[in-house]
Description:
Helix content: 25-40%
Largest sheet: 6 strands, mixed
Shape: globular
Strand order of the largest sheet: 6-8-5-9-7-10
Order of helices and strands: EHEHEEEHHHEHEHEHEE
Number of strands: 10
Strand content: 15-25%
Amino acid sequence: VCVDTLVAGVHFPADTPPACIGHKALAVNLSDLAAMGAEPAWFFLALTLPSGDRKWLDAFAEGMASLARLSRIALAGGDMSSGPLSVTVTAIGRVDKGTALLRSGACAGDLVVVSGTPGAAAHALQNLQASVVPETSDLAALECPDPRLALGRELRSLATSCIDISDGLMADLGHILEQSGVGADVELGNLPCPASLENIAGPERWPIQLAGGDDYELCFTVPPDAEGRLDAIARGCGVELTVIGIITDDDVLVLRTADGQLYEPARHGYRHFDSPGEDPA
């Protein structure tokens, strides 16, 4: 048995309910475990609070505990201190040696698959920043993402590579391509679209879906002869799975529109050490 430890930090929009902060702080770490096909085991919480607001803390704890119960992961310890609000979670999972999903196994001819409908969370944040009320489903995607643990387990014996989408579909697929030494040809016409973005033209919608991030869906590759198994896996896990492209034997990510034109995005995704306002492309 091998154990993996992951730590994640997340910024939350102002006025995010404390229950959603508790849920998401754990969910983003569970998403990393899902991307490796791991079974959640324990997590540790380091919590810094500006004040001893019992009502806030109870709601935060219930949001985190509800997801922990559903995911069958136990709080094993941590720390609490006084100061500016900070939430740090370390999640630990188990996976049999040699069966963990990695980013480095994609091969030319493999299909590129994505779960869910990337773009909903980024669209919600975009609306909030513009003082526009987001769609309910978009806000739920932003505040309470659903880590794809069941899907990750199903992919252990099928996927050749896998990653969760936190920095943006294009950036995270790029990590697979870099570590596998391959390229990809992606059909933007096949990109599954959230209902809230269906009436937005492609050139305005694609940057949200490709570079917005905060999706916590899985992007993975499978051999071409495994495509027939995807429908059954999708039904069993209760999540939409869509083939959006194919792995190529070069080291370039190519994006094509429905009419075959090449698309060059202005942004590629979130970069953790960019300065505010810096172009991340």
